[in-house]
């Protein structure tokens, strides 16, 4: 290895073969078992989510069906009683008959806990299930009566009187009666409490009116909430799950925990309603708080499902609004903790971890034994190879194995024999190659000396060429196709007053006058192999102002014919250009003078044979001769044809002779004008 260089080694290759073999057993097994356990756990969680969703949804449907069935029975009974009165089947003044009718309905519909009729006169007929398993009837006179009568019913529904005095009361003052009188239509009343047994009940009241529409009284069917509690408890939601019903106000209606939906307060005769957040069951308390947090004022319009988490435990919640046309507006809530479903999954997870550990130990044991069986012979081969690297070729390795490792040892020994032979052969070859190398080095030295002399001559030639360029007074410039300057002589730098280092590597464009840049660029793009040289004149910016320059631009091409560089040789032609512009302006002014003069002015050249070449006619020709300057320039015979024949011989050749001899002459002749008139013309000629 060369000094100062370090070999980069992959960290994996620095590990011993034995731990790598062990890892090759352990890692796949542990990975497979661990991944299987993880996927099983995740699939279990997903199954739990689906199962919980299906369970709470199914339980919600069952509770809703139960409520619809039980609560619709109360409305059916009230409607039957109203129909019986309207058809005359019941005489409301015959209390025994009404009592017997209520008895039959209790036998037919055991889902209600009491049937009542209260009149506007303060009478009350009631048949309700008592705590002792039989039914009792209370008949009372309201108003001024001081005593009420308690009547019990025998097994056939026949009333018999017990001498049990009770406090006088007016049924018209009962809360459900007051609420029904205000609404005036069938409706469920507010939950109230029986003072005798403490049960909470839900009343359904229907008004009774006479044919004239005047209120006579109310039928009321009562539904005890303890029956609803028992139904929710019998559902067995889950080992620790709960089902409960809330009013929109948050008051508890019923719960599977069998708790009563009210609490007694010392100093008050009537208990007060219990909020869901005040439940004795922590799961109902917490779930109700989450409902208030998630839904403002418990305004749930359609079935909802959500999950809340506490102490790293998830709880699945299903909320279903329950409404009917008689005024009930409840929320049926079912909450199931995730651990109720995850017990078996957690057990499987623990078992998977145990299997993973067991498999790891087995794999490590098998890996150690396999590694030793494979590595020990390889270590012997490695030690022998190290000895060979030190120059000791007497290190044969003998293994009593017939597998691949044994074959490797045989090959190793054969290689050792060949290495001995090659070493002897190489030593002789090295001596020969050393002599050949010395001869080659000598020749290379001679070639290097020759090349150095050639390079020296090239540098001298280059210096001479550069000196010639620098001494030129013309502006010399070389640039790439993109306009970047690669060389500029001193004349160029002095002309534009630019230092050499500010010119090289920059574009030539800034020194070109703005209006001429596009024309210059277009001319350079026209350079090709067939037209390698382009000459043009353009203006440039100099320290003394804008000046005219002339450039001879030559293109240089590579062996493929691609343009690679320009050489531009320029000179200052500003004085000539300005003289030309002045001459053009003078000629223009003279032409304006001649064109505006009231005379026919012509300019022509006379040759030795007295032939004429007409070069110019003024605009006055049209007025005097009737011919335009253009017509005369194209065909002078048009003028000759109109000169009077008698005067024509004195107009041409004699005139030429006199002008050439004297320098000036005047002639007069007749001329037929284009308008048909004959005019005398006087010509003054000057040479």
How would you characterize the overall build of this protein?
The chain has 687 residues and is an alpha+beta fold. Helices cover 45% and strands 25% of the residues. The protein contains 16 helices and 25 strands. Strands 1, 2, 3, 4, 5, 6, 7, 8 and 9 form a 9-stranded antiparallel sheet that branches. A 5-stranded antiparallel sheet has the order 11-10-16-15-14, sandwiched between helices. The protein has a 5-stranded antiparallel sheet with strand order 18-17-21-20-19, sandwiched between helices. Strand 15 and strand 16 (329-337) form a beta hairpin. The protein starts with 16 loop residues before the first helix and ends with a strand.
Strand proportion, as a percent range, falls in 15-25%
Number of helices: 16
The number of strands is: 25
**Fraction of residues in helices?**
40-55%
**What low-confidence regions span 5 or more consecutive residues with pLDDT below 50?**
1-8, 142-150
Give a brief description.
18% of the residues are buried. Helix 1 runs antiparallel to helix 6 (339-389) and helix 6 (339-389) crosses helix 7 (404-471).
Descriptive tags:
687 residues; alpha+beta; nine-stranded antiparallel beta sheet; five-stranded antiparallel beta sheet; 25 strands; flat; disordered N terminus
List the helices and strands and how they pair.
Elements: H1 17-86, H2 95-108, E1 114-119, E2 124-129, E3 135-140, E4 148-153, E5 159-166, H3 175-183, E6 187-188, E7 192-193, E8 200-209, E9 215-224, H4 225-234, E10 242-247, E11 252-255, E12 262-263, E13 272-273, H5 282-294, E14 304-310, E15 313-323, E16 329-337, H6 339-389, H7 404-471, E17 475-480, E18 485-488, H8 490-496, H9 500-503, H10 517-525, E19 533-542, E20 545-557, E21 563-572, H11 574-596, E22 602-606, E23 612-617, H12 620-625, H13 629-634, H14 637-640, H15 645-648, H16 653-662, E24 664-672, E25 678-686
Antiparallel strand pairs: 1-2, 1-9, 2-3, 3-4, 4-5, 6-8, 7-8, 8-9, 10-11, 10-16, 12-13, 14-15, 15-16, 17-18, 17-21, 19-20, 20-21, 22-23, 24-25
Helix pairs in contact: 1-6, 6-7
């Amino acid at each position: 290895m060369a000094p100062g260089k370090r070999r980069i080694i992959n960290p994996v290759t620095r590990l011993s073969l034995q731990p790598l073999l062990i890892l090759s057993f352990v890692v796949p097994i542990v990975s497979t078992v661990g991944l299987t356990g993880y996927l099983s756990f995740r699939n279990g969680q997903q199954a739990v989510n689906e199962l919980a969703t299906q369970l709470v949804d199914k339980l919600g449907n069952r509770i809703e069906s139960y409520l619809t069935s039980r609560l619709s029975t109360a409305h059916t009974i009230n409607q039957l009683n109203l129909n019986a009165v309207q058809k005359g089947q019941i005489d409301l003044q015959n209390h025994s008959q009404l009592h017997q009718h209520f008895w039959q309905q209790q036998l037919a519909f055991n889902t209600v806990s009491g049937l009542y009729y209260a009149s506007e006169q303060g009478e009350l007929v009631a048949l309700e299930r008592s705590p002792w398993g039989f039914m009792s009837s209370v008949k009372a006179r309201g108003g001024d009566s001081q005593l009420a009568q308690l009547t019990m019913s025998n097994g056939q529904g026949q009333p018999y009187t017990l001498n049990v005095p009770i406090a006088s009361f007016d049924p018209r003052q009962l809360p459900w009666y007051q609420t029904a009188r205000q609404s005036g239509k069938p409706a469920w009343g507010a939950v109230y409490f029986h003072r005798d047994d403490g049960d909470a009940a839900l009343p359904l009241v229907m008004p009774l009116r006479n044919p004239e529409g005047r209120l006579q009284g109310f039928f009321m069917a009562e539904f005890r909430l303890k029956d609803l509690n028992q139904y929710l408890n019998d559902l067995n939601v889950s080992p620790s799950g709960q089902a409960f019903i809330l009013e929109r106000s948050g008051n508890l209606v019923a719960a599977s925990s069998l708790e009563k939906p009210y609490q007694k307060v010392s100093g008050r005769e009537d208990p007060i309603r219990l909020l869901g957040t005040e439940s004795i069951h922590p799961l109902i308390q917490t779930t109700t708080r989450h409902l208030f947090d998630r839904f403002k004022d418990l305004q749930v319009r359609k079935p909802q499902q959500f999950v809340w988490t506490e102490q790293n435990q998830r709880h699945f919640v299903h909320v279903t609004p329950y409404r009917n046309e008689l005024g009930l507006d409840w929320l049926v809530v079912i909450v199931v903790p995730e651990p109720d479903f995850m017990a078996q999954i957690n057990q499987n997870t623990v078992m998977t971890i145990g299997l993973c550990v067991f498999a790891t130990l087995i794999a490590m044991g098998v890996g150690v034994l396999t590694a030793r069986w494979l590595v020990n012979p390889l270590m012997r081969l490695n030690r022998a190879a190290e000895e060979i690297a030190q120059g000791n070729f007497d290190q044969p390795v003998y293994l009593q194995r017939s597998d691949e490792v044994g074959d490797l040892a045989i090959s190793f020994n054969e290689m050792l024999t060949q290495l001995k032979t090659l070493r002897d052969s190489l030593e002789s070859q090295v001596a020969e190659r050393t002599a050949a190398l010395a001869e080659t080095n000598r020749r290379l030295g001679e070639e290097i000396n020759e090349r150095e002399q050639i390079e020296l001559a090239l540098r001298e030639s280059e210096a001479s060429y550069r000196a010639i360029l620098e001494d030129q007074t013309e502006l010399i410039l070389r640039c790439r196709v993109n306009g970047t300057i690669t060389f500029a002589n001193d004349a160029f730098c002095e002309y534009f007053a630019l230092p050499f280092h500010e010119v090289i590597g920059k574009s030539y464009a800034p020194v070109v006058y703005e209006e001429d840049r596009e024309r210059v660029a277009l001319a350079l793009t026209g350079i090709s192999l067939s037209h390698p040289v382009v000459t043009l004149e353009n203006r440039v910016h100099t320290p003394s102002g804008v000046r005219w320059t002339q450039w001879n631009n030559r293109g240089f091409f590579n062996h493929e014919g691609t343009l690679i560089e320009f050489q531009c040789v320029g000179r200052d032609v500003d004085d000539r250009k300005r003289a030309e512009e002045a001459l053009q302006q003078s000629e223009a002014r003279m032409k304006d003078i001649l064109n505006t003069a009231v005379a026919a002015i012509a300019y022509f050249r006379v040759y030795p044979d007295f032939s004429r070449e007409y070069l110019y006619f003024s605009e006055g020709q049209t007025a005097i001769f009737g011919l335009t300057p253009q017509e005369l320039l194209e065909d002078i015979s048009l003028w000759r044809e109109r000169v009077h024949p008698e005067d024509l011989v004195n107009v041409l050749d004699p005139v030429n002779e006199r002008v050439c001899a004297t320098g000036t002459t005047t002639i007069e002749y007749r001329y037929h004008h284009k308008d048909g008139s004959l005019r005398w013309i006087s010509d003054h000629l000057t040479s």
